[in-house]
Structure formats: structure tokens, C-alpha cells
UniProtKB/TrEMBL annotation:
InterPro entries: Aromatic_deC, PyrdxlP-dep_de-COase, PyrdxlP-dep_Trfase, PyrdxlP-dep_Trfase_major, PyrdxlP-dep_Trfase_small, Pyridoxal-P_BS. PANTHER family: GROUP II PYRIDOXAL-5-PHOSPHATE DECARBOXYLASE, MIP05841P. The lineage of its organism: Bacteria, Bacillati, Actinomycetota, Actinomycetes, Micromonosporales. Belongs to the group II decarboxylase family. This is Aspartate aminotransferase family protein.
Amino acid sequence: MTASFEWGADEFRAVGHQVVEMAARHLASLPDRPAFSPMPDDVVRLFESEGLPMSGAGVDAVLDDFAALVEPWPFGNGHPRFYAWVNPPPHPLGVLAELLAATMNPSVAGGNHAAVHVERQVVRWFTALAGLPSDAGGLLVSGGSTATLTGFAAARHRAAARAGIDVRRDGVQGRRFVLYQGAEGHGSARKAAELLGIGSANIRIVESDPQGRLRADTLDELIAADVRDGCVPVAVLASAGTVNTGAIDDLPAIADVCGRHGVWLHVDAAYGGPAVLLLDRYAQTREGLRRADSIALDPHKWLYVPVDAGLVLLRDPAVARDAFSLVPDYLRTDGDGPVWFSEYGFEQTRPFRALKVWMLLKHLGVDGYRSLIEHDLAVADRLAAQVEAADDLELLGRGLSVVCFRARPAGVEDLDALNRRVLSALQLGGEAFLSGTTVDGVFALRACVVNPRSTPADADAVVAAVRALSTLPQ
Ligand SMILES: Cc1ncc(COP(=O)(O)O)c(C=O)c1O
């Protein structure tokens, strides 16, 4: 087959219609399929054995391969009873926005083209929602992990400069840089600490109060002690919704402590950010959020934007520019538009992530998002209520749209083992998909509802499935 780069508009349209039809069928069929089914061994073997294609195949053959080998085995997060981790289904408009973004295919490193201005507008909308000053900034990144890495890199830069260290040139110079986070702080903070040369041993895990929130008084004491010992406090990671139980730290109290010690406050709102920004009941948390130096907030989580779309907001973008900017001669572009995004973060070529966020914000509006998030919270409430009403189930953790619980049928001693079996059977059985975690030392089934297609009846079905599996003979 000859390699053809040039497709006429008619050919693009014809293939495009086929692809849209496949996508529409996929999305529509998800509720009637198992929540998850693992890839069959024979299909895995096909992937492992097929060699690199040396000569190309026709488009129909490629689409047939997609239909036969890929589409039937999704991750599961389009299903109304997929409650694992924080992985919502994509809003359909977001799926189509991906097509348009790829059609334009810019690099949003910088320049004076539309994609740059779309991203600037998206960032401005979020800085305003978060109550940051009008000269705050930020950028879209791959997800919450990169958002936290970016915030920490800026924080490390500022802390090092204050300690008289040029960290970009000289590294950390044997000084002990320290970070602070709660017991439920996300694991991406640890990865970031390791990458930034801070070291995971230099993360202080601050004890939690009975609600799972980082204790601000303990944090205060730890920072004071570290300063006395000659350490360089870099940043505090506070959570506006932990992944484990949805716990929300007392941000105003933590902001007070950070302010007193001049330590950078990074808020991980990757999951909970949208609820905190939009719902009245989180107004007090919002008061703390607006005092953050950096915020991680993932549109690809509770804003239903297709992966990937993370966002880091920066109170003082100049610090991030100092930490990251590197403009070799071949990239110098004097006078063409705003400062390049690539000067504020690690990526050089950057995708047009902003389009799907921008389109969905325009389409749903703040009010639309508010009602979708309220819906998810109501389904989570229903699930928690059903758990509490059942005498063979135990509620272990509840925050935002997370419900952690376990089966506790009479007469079973090893509840951890039982619940691990229940989880595995549930995941492989296809009725629903939860994840597992540990809450206060015991194994828990964890449900996180971030799916507007999920109904109270789905929550009831999950509870029924767990109860049925927990009473099956071993
Ligand atoms: C609270 C929180 N922070 C950070 C992350 C990491 O985000 P990502 O997986 O997009 O890198 C997650 C992921 O679930 C999360 O829930």
C-alpha cells in the first residue's frame, strides 16, 4: 500500500463519520456492558506477538482492529457503577473537543495564536473562581501529579533563594529541605519530593485530627522546630479532598501557619477543587484556598474533561518562571505575544488541552457544573445511607463523594481477607467496580462517585452486590 498523507475533505469526512459512529456506539452501549472485563488472554497474546507493521494497511482494516481488539475492553470509567479512584466518564463534548484540538494540533508552548489565548482565558477563569489576585496565573499540565510537582518546584526555588542558594545552578547544596503533608496527602507529593532532590525522608507527615485533617497546631510546632534545626521548610501540602476518604483540611488555619512562617502553601484540590469552588457548603474552605501560593486542580477529574487535563494555579507566576524558564537561542521569539507557557513549567511542546476545558465551561457553565456535582454528592449520600442502614456493612470513611465501607457479616473474623475477596469478585464479576484502600488500619472498599450517569439505583445495586458476595461460601 502506498503511504498517503493527503486526504481530501471527502475522505476525511467519510472516515470521520465511521469514527464518530464507533464512538457514539461505544458511549451508548457502556451501561449495558459489564462495568469491567479483563482483557482475555488470547487477545493479550495477539498484542504481544504482532510485530511492527512494515507496510501499512487500509483505514478500514485499522478501524476493524480497533473495533475487535481495543474498544471491547475499556478501563471501565464510562459505566454508571464504576466508582473506583477519581476517574469520571468524559463529557461527550469533551470527546469531540479532542478531535478539534488535534485537528489544529498547535504546540501551546507559546506564541500569539488562538490556543495560547484560550488557555490564558481558562487559567484566568479559574484564578478568579479561586479568589486569587488578578495578576495570578497558571498553566494546564498532565494532571494532579504534575501540578503538584510544578507547585513544589516553584516553592523550592523560592525557599532556596531565601536561604541564599541558587538551586538551579548548585542543587540543594547539602541543606535539608523539608515538606509537610497530612497522613492522607496524595502519593504524588512524595514522587515530587524525590524528583526535586528533597528526598522522601524529608517529608514530615503531620498527624491528623479525628476527621482525617492535617492538624494545624502540630504543623506549626514542626515548622518551628525545623527552622531551629537549620532546615529549609519548602512547602506545606494541604488537601481539599483527599483521594482516600475525601477529607478536607482546615485550610484557613493552615494558611495562618504558613503565613506566620513564610512557608509556601500548596493546596491539592485535584479531586475536590470543583466542589470547593462551586458549592456554598465549602465556603470556609474557599477562604483558605484563596490564600494558597499554588493550587492543583484537575479538570480531568470532577469537571468530566477527557484525560489529560490538570491545572496548576500560581499566586505569583514570576516565581515559577524563575524556577523553570530556559529560552535557548533557537526558541527566542522576541515580541510575539504573551510570555510563553513553557517558561512556567517543564513541558516545551504542549498540547491544546485548554480547548476541551474551555468548551465544556462554555457549554455547562458554572451552574451546570454545580448541578452535576450536586448529583454525584447525592448518589454518594445515598450509598452511605444504605451502608449505614445495613447491619452487615460498616461505614469507615465519608468525605466529598467518597464512601469507604466494608462488609461485616456475623461470625467472620478476618474482615480484611473477606473484603479483599469481595472486592476482587466485584471487579471481575462486572456488576460494579470499586477500589480498595486502608482506613484507620483496616481494609476498606472505596467508592468515589464522579459520574452524572450514575443513579441512586446504581448505588443500591452496589450495596446489594457487596452484601451478596460477602455471604457467599468461601
Ligand atoms: C487528591 C489527588 N491528588 C493528586 C492526584 C494525582 O492526579 P493525577 O493522577 O492526575 O496525576 C489524585 C489522583 O487521583 C488525587 O485524587
